[in-house]
User: Fold this.
Amino acid sequence: MLIAVLLVSLLIFIAMGLPIAVALAGSSLLYLAIGYLTGEVAVPSVVVIHRMVNGVDSFPLLAVPFFVFAGNLMNTAGITKRIYDFALAIVGWLKGGLGHVNVIGSVIFAGMSGTAVADAGGLGTIEIKAMRDHGYDVNFAVGITAASSTIGPIIPPSLPMVIYGVVGGVSIGQLFAAGVVPGLIMAVILMGTVTLYAHRRGWGRDAEFSIRNMASSFRLAWMPLMTPVIILGGMLFGVFTPTEAAVAACAYALLLGLVVYRSLSWRQLVRVSMDTIETTAVVLLIVAGASIFGWILATTRVTEAFAEAMLSITRDPIYVLLLINLLLLVVGCFMETIAAITILTPVLLPVAVQVGIDPVQFGLIMVLNLMIGLLTPPVGMVLYVLARVASIPFEQCVRACLPFIVPLLIVLFLITFVPGVTLWLPTLFFR
Assistant:
């Protein structure tokens, strides 16, 4: 009965439009208060505070503010423009050139930001304007920008993977390594989609093929391009941990913005710092709220009951993965990514492990599912960002993004049923 109170109150709070962190903590507090009054739960309500504090008292979570700060610095210092110009030089001469530029720019920026929303809001502003100016259909521009932004949390660094690693006790370094190949496959499939659109609609090239332009744009962008090399290379070769890599990314971004390019003023630095504090506070508040909620589910053995119920249906890994994917796709439509990972990892990861699925592979499956959720209403954050960036109605943004979910589902199928796609690099460097 009390578990019903917990779950129903959570749904009611979310339906009321309360922030997800407040909904999670509020439903947990209501559960404990009613249970304490009825004598069914011998835990005082003050335990909510202790569990929330313990939920964010984690050294790997320090990577969150530093990666957010690094991405914000890159956007504010104008470094994204250099990345865009470099991408234009290397693939702009292909048919549907700016669509390919959109994807390649996201791949490069993915190695700096770690979030889809930062990609959509940073590079997306430049890309959508350029595609409109070159006569591209606005729906196509918005759709490909949304789809390519989901590469951000797949190619390291990745904030969702940091959260998953902390909650699930999985190596963040291995998770980062596991995201490289799937991220590149996403890029290839999205570029293939752009090519199909270009041939079908008769789009031409948006830049001339020029070795000189490639060399010139590389000369201007090579230092920002070193950011993902520093982050990923340092972790793969044991130079620093993921948290230390986040600090290194911030230091490098500050070096570029303040010293090398001098495109970042002290006033901008203060604003970026405040934006980072705000974003980090939101993320950690969600983690804290989800921690107490997840603790209640664990102590009441709901997670074990769920695992037993699912395994009673089937123990075939293929069917288990299909059920989990379906669940995650639905959850992604209605729940914020960080909250979904924090709540569902303790529930679903034991099921996956029992049927022989590697925790690292499962992490990629979970993150990509929830990234697809960013493109689906009603909670898709990327949709809201791009609707504002492109100055179009939210409903039009949803219609524009729907066709581009198909290539993402193809990649999801690959990483779900071909483990080598995700596990090859972690096995090579960590095992």
About this structure: The chain has one domain: 46-430. The first helix runs from residue 2 to 15.
